[in-house]
Amino acid sequence: MKFLGTTCISISALFMAGCVTRNQEPPQRLPAVSPLPSYSISSQGEIAARPWWESFERPALTSLIEQSLAQNYSLAQSVAVLKQAESLARRTGAGRKPQLNLEGNGSQDWEDGDSQRGSAEAGLALAWEVDVWNRVGSVALADRLEAQARAADVEALQLSLSAAVANSYFGAVAARERLELLNAQVTLDRELERLLQLRLDNGVGTNVDVLQQQVRVAESETLIPVAESQWAVFENRLDVLLGQTPDAKPRVANGESLDFDRALPSIDVPASLLLNRPDLRSAFSELVAADHEIAAAIADRFPNIVLGASLLYSDDSNFTGSVFTLAASFVQPLLDWGARKAEVQRNEALYEQRLAAFTQLFLEAVESVENALVREAKQSEFLQKLAKQQDLLQRTVNAAERRYTQGIDDYQPVISALQELRAVERNMITAKLDLLAIRIELFRAIGGPVRSGRSAALQPAAALQDPQLPVGLSLATRRVSSILQNHHIVGAKLFKQPNKTPTPLPSRVAACCRPQCNPVYQQDAVWTKVQPYYDSTYWTVSKGSAVAG
Fold it and tell me: Where in this protein does the record put region Disordered (predicted)?
């Protein structure tokens, strides 16, 4: 027994000597994905400190979006998924603590004759897995990060849902304006038809003029059913987004218009999307979670040590009284035919997949902001030119009507000018709606926010802000830092680092049992103590390739 105990201790010391469960080779830098210092179109607007839809200053729209956030069933599903992830994280985290159970058993034996023999025992049993290699801790941390990713997914769905409500709302407004315009055009066309018929009756006009105007009336009337159906479709969509049964009843208040003249919101540098966009924060949390899953898979190849203790009260024919027991178990996998190694490789491949997905998502996020900025600038320019064209066409119609009433020209120039004017008037409604849709897409692209005040969208990524995270474990943090290069993140802004006086490394770094067990911290890095928007202080590198929370 003494030899066995000595052997276990020796083997444990041998495995603990490394103090690492990760490959310490520095990762390769990502190829040419560093964000630009700024977007091609700058914006010095006010930083959003309230939900993005309030910038439109439409109380009816605000009310509808708030209803959708409270009643939408897709959002309810996402919240339920978040609750599951949080529960799983709590369950996994509980595995790091000693487990105390109440145990009891009893038996009764009958032998030949009248003799009986019974036994019973009851008491407390304690079991604790000594997490020497941080396997349980890595799994628990990965589950916490997955829960943070699901929380970001909820916010991303809130952002998408609010944008869908806004698009449907303004779509309904546009459909109603288009219907009102068509009704006004039909009324005017009928009045012109009446006047032309009156001129014909007085021997001034021609029958062709009357027939041509009747064609114009018919053409205008054919567009009305289309506009009515579009209005109903948008209203039904609003019902579904609000968690209601579609009934085609109008929810858009009368008097609403598509007129919109608001400055661009504050657009930060591209790398701030890593903080502001919930889908990027979700992808980053999943990336770091995969990193810790690798650590857990590697630790699973090391010895598993479990300590136990029990205090039982026993009552049988041989002994009655309390029994206290201490126990320990030691299991070292020796032959598993490569199963655990394959699990490590699977998690490494999962990490590479999520790293590529995160990088691609970041590039697409920058693209979406750039596209929205360019499209809004050009759409505003297009609206100005369209308004100028509408003014010229209105003057052309007035001049053609004067020449017709004076008998200089026939009615054909009037019809041609009216056709062009009507088309431009309808195009103006579509162009205004497109401008609003582009602004909504811009808010989606920059990440909202969807909540007032210091929104979670303005907080650093959870994996960077959590002071409980082991600073030396995350390969993902080093990989992401290669995107940011010599920038660091503070609150909702990303600043280029000035020259700083080197600051001693935090004690938790110096306390590492081996220098290489914290590869995140480069020897040539200059560290800066930062006080971001949240309360706790964290350390971030200001020179080199590392960023850590």
Answer: 92-117
